[in-house]
């Protein structure tokens, strides 16, 4: 369904710098991930970002860092139905100080973001893991957390967001101090339900 192997470049993946967005008069600031041709899983291409490119998104509750973010319209693609799909990816930290943060997959649509909190993603330290982290995108709100909505009194329900996702990515949530260091990603995929 979706496959980012990073063989030829960053494939549109960015980091979100909320603080720079505030300074830029409300214009969102996205910083393209750095691509490396080698050094990924099986010495493949991969992308990385670090704390100089992200900042805590303070309207999110709890505060969230969005080190990897992807909007489908950046590649002229429309919303996608992720209901029941499975996400797989590799995440590697180098000098990454999480300060208690957990790593999650999130989806965004209809002005609302949901984090899949029932399956935190693994970030290995200084090496790639033997197997990818996997997350099942089950439309059960008890397994997710709604962190932000343009209308806090009436956020879009999870099933609606999953069925028409316009954006998705990786978040860091629950830190006691802002996360520092490098985070790399490789072999990102979303598989359709069987």
How many structural domains? Answer: 1
CATH topology: Jelly Rolls
Q: Ends: how far apart?
A: 12 Å
- Please tally the β strands and state the result: 14
Described by strand count, sense and barrel closure, the largest sheet is: 7 strands, mixed
Q: C-alpha Rg, in Å?
A: 16 Å
Q: Can you give a write-up of this model?
A:
The chain is about 5% helix and about 40% strand. It is built from 2 helices and 14 strands. The strands form 3 sheets. Strands 1, 4, 5, 7, 10, 11 and 14 form a 7-stranded mixed beta sheet that branches. Strands 6-13-8-9-12 form a 5-stranded antiparallel beta sheet. The radius of gyration is 16 Å and the shape is globular. A hairpin with a 2-residue loop joins strand 8 (about 100-110) and strand 9 (about 110-115). The longest helix is centred in the N-terminal third of the chain and has 6 residues, at about 20-25. By secondary structure, the chain is mostly beta strands.
Question: Helix and strand layout, with pairings?
Answer:
Blueprint: E1 2-4, E2 14-16, H1 18-23, E3 30-32, E4 34-36, E5 46-50, E6 64-71, E7 86-97, E8 102-109, E9 112-115, E10 124-125, E11 133-136, E12 145-149, H2 158-163, E13 167-173, E14 180-191
Parallel strand pairs: 7-10
Antiparallel strand pairs: 1-14, 2-3, 4-5, 5-14, 6-13, 7-11, 7-14, 8-9, 8-13, 9-12
């Amino acid at each position: 369904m979706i496959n980012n192997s990073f063989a030829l470049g960053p494939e549109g993946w960015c980091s979100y710098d909320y603080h720079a967005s505030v300074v830029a008069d409300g214009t969102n600031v996205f910083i393209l991930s750095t691509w490396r041709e080698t050094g990924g899983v099986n010495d493949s291409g991969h992308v990385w970002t670090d704390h100089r490119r992200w900042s805590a998104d303070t309207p999110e509750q709890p505060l969230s860092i969005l080190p990897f973010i992807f909007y489908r319209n950046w590649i002229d693609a429309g919303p996608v139905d992720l209901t029941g799909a499975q996400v797989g990816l590799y995440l590697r930290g180098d000098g990454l100080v999480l300060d208690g943060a957990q790593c999650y997959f999130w989806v965004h649509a209809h002005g609302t973001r949901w984090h899949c909190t029932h399956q935190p993603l693994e970030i290995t330290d200084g090496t790639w893991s033997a197997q990818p982290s996997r997350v099942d995108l089950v439309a059960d709100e008890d397994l997710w957390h709604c962190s932000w909505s343009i209308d806090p009194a009436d956020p879009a329900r999870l099933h609606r967001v999953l069925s028409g996702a316009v954006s998705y990515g990786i978040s860091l949530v629950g830190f006691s101090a802002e996360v520092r260091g490098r985070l790399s990603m490789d072999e990102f995929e979303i598989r359709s339900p069987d």
